[in-house]
User: Which sequence fits this backbone?
């Protein structure tokens, strides 16, 4: 495997291997301090990001490598009209591996076709976010101890949420995974995912607008924010943005073993009072993102 564009680029064996390496990095960080010495990661972020960009940078630094790149399209030659393919062919001369985020779906695929060095898709539009999915899988495995026999509640923006789309595609490959899709009608999961992923794989799922009624059934609650930047109409965003707010009262119905994940940033869909609940693991999840990206960078660079 040269690039990671889509979570389906990875077999289950490769995902398990990445999770094992990430767990070993957590347990034995000193063994990895110079694994990427003299290697350079370019972070090409044509769209704003905090966690994804900084966790890629932290990952490369902790492996002993270096980082170069830009954090918004305006500070790159894209502002002058340069194409994605010309940008990556130029950057290839300076770096060993590229992590790229772009608002246009498919941009990382184009980049991968134009360059010889590995490309990691760090999020493309409402389409895919495979390293967030790897982060989610590592978190679920560490928090719950398994990736099969789970009931997963996906709550909020299921229409535009690329993290949700990637997670569903990954989780349907594990045994006995069920989904409860919790969203307003306007933000329900796209039809193509229901038909091509859930129905095709005979996955059990329910669509509902009620978070409260679903709470006691869940092993994982994956909260998402309603994304202002994906709406064409401000009024629709304002009407839908506070549909679901997770509070300590709502969590009273949940199992003690249930875990709350969120790809972050949150706006107000999880009350800050929930942060101290041991079931809230979104900040641990953000930390796990660094370790899984360390494992992925090493894999794509062919470093044992």
Assistant:
């Amino acid at each position: 495997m040269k690039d990671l564009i889509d979570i389906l680029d990875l077999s289950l064996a490769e995902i398990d291997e990445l999770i094992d390496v990430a767990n070993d990095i957590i347990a034995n960080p000193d063994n990895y301090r110079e694994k990427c010495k003299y290697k350079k990661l370019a972070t090409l972020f044509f769209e704003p990001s905090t966690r994804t960009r900084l966790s890629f940078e932290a990952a490369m630094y902790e492996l002993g490598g270096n980082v170069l790149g830009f954090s918004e399209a305006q500070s790159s030659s894209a502002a002058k009209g340069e194409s994605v393919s010309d940008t990556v062919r130029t950057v290839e001369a300076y770096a060993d591996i590229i992590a790229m985020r772009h608002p246009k779906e498919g941009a990382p695929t184009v980049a991968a076709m134009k360059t010889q060095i590995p490309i990691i898709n760090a999020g493309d539009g409402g389409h895919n976010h495979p390293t967030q999915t790897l982060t989610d899988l590592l978190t679920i495995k560490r928090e719950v101890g398994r990736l099969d026999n789970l009931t997963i509640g996906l709550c909020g923006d299921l229409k535009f949420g690329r993290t949700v789309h990637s997670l569903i595609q990954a989780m349907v490959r594990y045994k006995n995974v069920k989904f409860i899709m919790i969203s307003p009608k306007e933000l329900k999961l796209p039809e193509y995912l229901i038909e091509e992923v859930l129905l095709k794989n005979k996955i059990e799922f329910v669509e509902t607008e009620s978070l409260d009624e679903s709470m006691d059934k869940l092993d994982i609650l994956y909260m998402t924010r309603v994304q202002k930047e994906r709406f064409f109409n401000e009024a629709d965003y304002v009407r839908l943005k506070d549909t679901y707010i997770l509070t300590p009262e709502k969590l009273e119905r949940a199992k003690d073993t249930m875990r709350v994940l969120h790809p972050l940033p949150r706006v107000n869909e999880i009350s800050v009072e929930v942060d101290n609940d041991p079931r809230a693991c979104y900040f641990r999840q953000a930390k796990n993102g660094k370790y899984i990206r360390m494992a992925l960078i090493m894999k794509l660079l062919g470093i044992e």
Summary: The first strand starts at residue 40 and ends at 45. The mean pLDDT is 91.
